Amino acid sequence: MSYIRFSYLYRDAGNNKNFGSVIFANRHQHTQETLRSSIQRKLIDNLYFDAIVWQIPTLHFAEHDPELDHGWHEFDDVSVVDHLTELKPNRDIEDLCQL
Fold it and tell me: Is the pTM of this model over 0.70?
């Protein structure tokens, strides 16, 4: 089985960025291009998503001001993870992009 790293970021009202990623199983061996395209179709303006709705960790800063800072995160990219050095994922990438 292969694994996919879903990379994303949060950009606050001051344009400060916080980067993160989540590892997903890729049981059906989808290509990066297929996954990228499927994910982008679900994004707002081909870039933004709500991490809470997508059930992935938020990347808000400790001093999050809900009056100024929005809840949207930005999709960065997907990449294949050859050697799994992190905890085994409990979700498949298909759960995220509903292929």
Answer: yes
